[in-house]
Amino acid sequence: MATTQERKPLLLDFEKPLAELASRIEQIRKLAEENGVDVTNQIHQLEARAMQLREEIFSSLSPTQRLQVARHPRRPSTLDYIQAITDEWIELHGDRCGSDDPALVGGVARLLNQSVVILGHQKGRDTKDNIARNFGMASPGGYRKALRLMEHANKFGMPIVTFIDTPGALPTVIAERQGQGEAIAYNLREMFSFDVPIICTVIGEGGSGGALGIGIGDRVMMFEHSVYTVATPEACAAILWKDAGKAPQATAALKIISHDLKNLGIIDQILAEPIGGAHSDPLQAARTLKTALLENLEILNGFTNEERKEMRYQRFRKMGILTEAEQ
C-alpha cells in the first residue's frame, strides 16, 4: 500500500483539472478496448485539449503558485541534475573541521570536456530523507565545505558551478553558535576574489543568506518556475504583519519570480521549463540546464581573470540602485 502511494503523482491544487482530464481519457480508452470500439480520434482530441489546458495553466501561474512549483517534492534536486548532465562525478566530503553537512553536497565533475567543481543544496524526497538533509538548510559546516571545494577549484583552474535550492540557512541555536553568519559572510567575500568562472543557478527555492552563501557568480541563472527571495514569504508575513497567513500577499510584494528578478537585474538568464514544471520532465530540464552552462562557460572562458572579477564586482555593485522620477 505504501509503495502504491509513493508512486502516485503529487498534485498541486491547480493541477487537479489536469489529473481529472487525464483520468477521463484513461477511462474512455479502457472502455473502448473492452467493447471493441475505435475512439482514436476522440482520444487525440482530448489529449490535445489536455496539452492546451496544461499550457494555459502553467503560462499564467500566480507568484504563490510558482512558489508551490518551486517547492514541489518531485522537483529535480542538485544530485539529480549532476547525474544527468555530467560525464563523470566524484563527490567530496567534509569541511576539514570535523563536519560533513548532507544539506550541501559538492565534488569534482566533467562537463563535456571540461573539469568543473559542482556544489549545491540538497533536499530530501520524503520526510525521513528531508530530516537527514535538514530540508536543504545548510549548517556552517556546509558553507565551509563549499568554500573548501571552491578554493580547490580556484587552485586548479576549474570553473565553479553552484545549484541553489534552499529555504534558507539552518536557523538553529547550535548553527548560530557555530558561526552561521560568519561562514556565509566569509563565502561572499571569497567568491568575489576567485579567478575562475562562477555560474550559479537557482533550481528550486532560493532563500535568504542560505542561497547567497553559494550565490556570487559571473552569471546567475534561474529556472522559470523557481523563486529567489531575501526571506521566505511566510517569514516576511510574520515580520511585517505578525501573521504568517498573509504569505500570499508577501509573495506578490517580494517580487520573487524569475521574470521580475530578470527585469530588476538580479539574475541574468531564465531557463525555460517543460510544460508542467521541471518535475514533469526532469531530463528535458537537465538538457536545458546543460546547454546553458556550456554556453555561458564558453563566453566566460574568453575573459581574463581580472576582467571576470571586475565584471563580477560591478554586477553586484549596481544592484539596488534607485532613481526618483520627476513629478
Automatic annotation (TrEMBL):
Annotated Pfam families: ACCA (PF03255)
InterPro entries: Acetyl_CoA_COase_a_su, ClpP/crotonase-like_dom_sf, COA_CT_C
Reaction(s) catalysed by this chain's protein: N(6)-carboxybiotinyl-L-lysyl-[protein] + acetyl-CoA = N(6)-biotinyl-L-lysyl-[protein] + malonyl-CoA
GO terms, biological process: fatty acid biosynthetic process; malonyl-CoA biosynthetic process
Catalytic EC class: transferase
EC code: 2.1.3.15
Keyword check for RNA-binding: no
Record text on subunit structure and interactions: Acetyl-CoA carboxylase is a heterohexamer composed of biotin carboxyl carrier protein (AccB), biotin carboxylase (AccC) and two subunits each of ACCase subunit alpha (AccA) and ACCase subunit beta (AccD).
Annotated GO MF terms: acetyl-CoA carboxylase activity; ATP binding; carboxyl- or carbamoyltransferase activity
Listed name of the protein: Acetyl-coenzyme A carboxylase carboxyl transferase subunit alpha
Function comment: Component of the acetyl coenzyme A carboxylase (ACC) complex. First, biotin carboxylase catalyzes the carboxylation of biotin on its carrier protein (BCCP) and then the CO(2) group is transferred by the carboxyltransferase to acetyl-CoA to form malonyl-CoA.
Pathway: Lipid metabolism; malonyl-CoA biosynthesis; malonyl-CoA from acetyl-CoA: step 1/1
Location in the cell: Cytoplasm
Keywords for this protein: ATP-binding, Cytoplasm, Fatty acid biosynthesis, Fatty acid metabolism, Ligase, Lipid biosynthesis, Lipid metabolism, Nucleotide-binding, Transferase
